[in-house]
Amino acid sequence: MQEITYATKTFVTTDAIAAALVELVTSINRDTHSEAVVVPAYTETGKRVEATMTLDASSELVAVPSDVSPDDNLENDEAVAAALKDIRARIQNGSRTTRAVYPDTVEPVQYGDDI
Question: Does the predicted TM-score (pTM) go above 0.90?
Answer without folding.
Answer: no
